[in-house]
Design goal:
Two copies of one chain form a homodimer.
Chain A (H helix, E strand, L loop, with lengths): L20 H8 L3 E5 L2 E4 L1 H20 L2 E3 L5 E3 H7 L1 H4 L6 E3 L5 E4 L4 H11 L8 E10 L14 E11 L2 H22 L3 E5 L9 E8 L5 E6 L5 E3 L20 E4 L6 H8 L7 E7 L5 E7 L6 H8 L5 E2 L2 H7 L15 E5 L7 E4 L5 E6 L8 E3 L17 E16 L1 H6 L2 E3 L5 E3 L1 E8 H11 L1 E2 L2 E2 L10 E6 L4 H16 L4 E4 L5 H11 L3 E6 H5 L2 E6 L6 E4 L3 H10 L4
Parallel strand pairs in A: 3-7, 15-17, 17-20, 27-28, 27-29
Antiparallel strand pairs in A: 1-2, 4-6, 5-6, 7-8, 8-24, 9-10, 10-21, 11-12, 11-21, 13-19, 14-15, 14-16, 18-19, 21-24, 22-23, 25-26, 29-30, 30-31
Helix pairs in contact in A: 1-11, 2-6, 2-11, 12-15
Amino acid sequence: MRQSLLFGRTLREPPAEAQTPGHRLMLRAAIARPLAAGFYTWLPLGFRVAKRVEQIIREEMNRIGCQELEMPVLTPAEPWKETGRWDALEPITFRTTDHNGREFMVSYTHEEFVHLHAKQEILSYRQLPFMVYHFQSKGRDEARPRAGLLRAREFVMKDAYSFDADMAGLDRSYKAQHGAYARIFARMGLDAISVESDTGAMGGDIAHEFQVLTEVGEDRIALCSNCDYRANLEKATRRIEQAPGATNVPMPTPIATPGVTTIDALSDGLGVKASAFLKTLLLRDGGGEIVAVVLPGDREASEPKLRKLLGLPTLRFANDADFAAVGGVAGYVGPVGLRGARVVIDRSVQPGSYIAGANKRDTHLRDVLPGRDFQGEWVDVHDVREGDRCPRCGGRLEIRRGVEVGNIFAYGTYYSEKMNATFLAEDGTRKPFVGGSYGIGIGRSVQTIIETHHDEKGIVWPPQVAPFAAHLIALPVSDADVRAAAEALLAALEEGGVEVLYDDREESAGVKFADADLIGIPLRLTVSKRTLKERSVELKPRAAAAAELVPLAGASEHIAGIVRGWPK
Amino acid sequence: MRQSLLFGRTLREPPAEAQTPGHRLMLRAAIARPLAAGFYTWLPLGFRVAKRVEQIIREEMNRIGCQELEMPVLTPAEPWKETGRWDALEPITFRTTDHNGREFMVSYTHEEFVHLHAKQEILSYRQLPFMVYHFQSKGRDEARPRAGLLRAREFVMKDAYSFDADMAGLDRSYKAQHGAYARIFARMGLDAISVESDTGAMGGDIAHEFQVLTEVGEDRIALCSNCDYRANLEKATRRIEQAPGATNVPMPTPIATPGVTTIDALSDGLGVKASAFLKTLLLRDGGGEIVAVVLPGDREASEPKLRKLLGLPTLRFANDADFAAVGGVAGYVGPVGLRGARVVIDRSVQPGSYIAGANKRDTHLRDVLPGRDFQGEWVDVHDVREGDRCPRCGGRLEIRRGVEVGNIFAYGTYYSEKMNATFLAEDGTRKPFVGGSYGIGIGRSVQTIIETHHDEKGIVWPPQVAPFAAHLIALPVSDADVRAAAEALLAALEEGGVEVLYDDREESAGVKFADADLIGIPLRLTVSKRTLKERSVELKPRAAAAAELVPLAGASEHIAGIVRGWPK
């Protein structure tokens, strides 16, 4: 490919809106361009990278017997309504209505539709298990698209679906996908770890995310420093040593706390540490009921855990009328004496005495004993934090940021039961399919590769996903000898199966080298008047500091040998 | 690929809704399945065909220097509004609005967006010409989706775009694409002819369609039996010999025609042939004006030509109030004496005297002379028909049905002027890009291949696009020797690069052969107890009547040799 013809120009400076190193480099190197907030076009250079990423995924899906097909982008509303996701997904999806009034969703995922196909194509257990996948555009109406391809509003996802006759079969399919994912990310050059995750909008119980740990990630991951426990904070738990129950705790008595409405202020004012208090949050759940969430004063509630508990896509805090309805007083709300609220107690709360709001202006209660002075369901809604103990081994937990590049869900019969998607089982009865789904975002993977493979000058592509193997630079292209030598080498390399971007532009050495560093092709080859004096070409790997001279005679074989040695 | 694992089952009978031979076979052979009216999933077998078709297109696009990229499915409204297509395309597109109230269209084509990219990436004439393309899902809210993949509401299209500095450049790009299209369809096994076509929603003047002539087509094509004139009837014209003007025609006089309101009835009643009458249609144009269209009584109006003339996506006939407003009387309307209507006269109307409606109940006028008794613009709005004369050579025109598998448009500066998409020209001024666009529908191509490559038993794939090269049948698979021999052959074939569908199902010979004929893979290989007695495998090309026995020793090389000999 001649660079003079390549569509897409490099930028000296990143656009002001670029938020992360990968976002900046992706735009500067002409990998992709936005057409609207969160909507991107792959320019030719980025398209080549995206196709290499897809091909790695395709090969690993095929290797485990997963079959490629292609479902449409627009999906009819009825199956979404059968599973209840038409309403649940409304806030983050795009809808359209055709001219006959029929509703469609721009596909979010395809669980409903692959179940429809399974109902039609699979008559008996003898056709099970099977797995299918496709690469298809997905729409997500993100309120805040973020950092380029890390969180876009349209993106191509590889989504795969497994269908088994029973849970043991699902376990095998899930493990096969898990293994394929580990190979896929390794082949892409991504150091992705598998972490336990919440099932969210997918349903079911067991789910893992593949996370690449990097500061630009939005997710927070708990990792045990001792064992292999790894979990998204949406799902992470911790070991809590139960303190012995306090004995002879006197009944609660009020203390005057005029104008003191925060745990910090109370802690300072009373000279007692934050963990001696209870904090009580009033929220509404999906059914409109008022819920009081009780936590120790030193712990934060986890938003994702609360959302799941309350069955809501976003938290709804109680309003003034709600406070009045349950007898709560803002700033002085506590679990004792609330009327008609559902009380949930985080399991961080210990069986000892606490100071809590008195539901009375300027007043708190001391000697509040959970279980004696108030009742509630015990739940896990607190955020795990650095230094907490691992739920599995008791080791120290660390918290890191990560980008979720893939996720896998074992949802079992969650969809098949709702959709009456059954097959004729070996025992002659009809049974629901037992399924899982398995996603990888292409654009996010590509940008995560950039986020984790760059230096101050530009991208440093892992060879497996690089848009070209070699970047050949003629300096200057106006010199007939240089051009002839460069084009002879180009022809020999292409003949030998090496994909080359040939910089045939009439630009200065500075511009060409800066572009080569920015674009980040693994091998830079320079033919110049200086190298021709030595009958050589300069070879500089992008990831190496030093260049070497390689004799032109045999150069193409030498370079093809390097390329053949790369991981596939 | 083992057929026992293949997702998608063949159907003995076509679903009742199937409309054409290709539609029936596409469904029966598990090529694709509908998810809603006009929305299809490619099942694994069909997916393989679609990808082969895409790969042929990709290779031919790359060969002419067209670069692959990928633009999104959802496209923001603003650029569509700049070109006026937001409103114009409303009736046949899908729209959505995000949660911030911003409007999007499910992409119809991408002219507007590729111009946006050109504005950003192309600074100077030195970067011209360039061509880019992508494969992307398109949405068309067809009121009547038809015949499976022939007219779907979502489909993947390859759309390419050329950008040149001037019309001479566009002409070169257009010719390069025209040549690529000819190679593409020939490689797919489609006998597509290039015909002149209307530019419709694309704008511009010059356009061609690639049409495959088949009775299942929706389009009607005029072909000259003498020269190479070929045109879609939407655009076709004919040579009209102008009759000498009539002299001494008396002034119009009324004739009583009580209750006679059709040309046929008038012709019978008065004993005068249909061509002696004028028929007058009253319609409304895009601006709401009433238009009287005057044609000879023996010619039909062309709907597409009228739509174009009136600037409307569908025809709107005049209502009672419109008749009253211009003084027309239903059944007796004529061009003489209409008040306030825009009159257009088809150029089939000759300068002689005619019988026409008198705009008075039960009355016609004889001796109506165009140009004397009424005035109007002369236009071409009649339908060309079999036996008309070629506009180019005067030869006889034939009318055939066709499926449009591709189309190319030279729209010039139609978009760039509306969007102010300019580049710095060699003379230092800013000039608008000169462009063309070039589309091929993947699904329609695949089904058209089936429509034109099948027999009474099933599909007969051209080898270049077949899902597999060979269909290996073990009969019965329960026989250990048969299975061992079949699987040894399978391994040898795959080792030799031959893609094989291996029928390892426990089914009867009848079922397996019927499926093989239905699916239509080019080479059928049968290993049975009978062939093993001869140490042979039976080889039967799908397109041939006879089978032959091939010794198992060397069979894989023999078959690989056949496959290597196929056109690529």
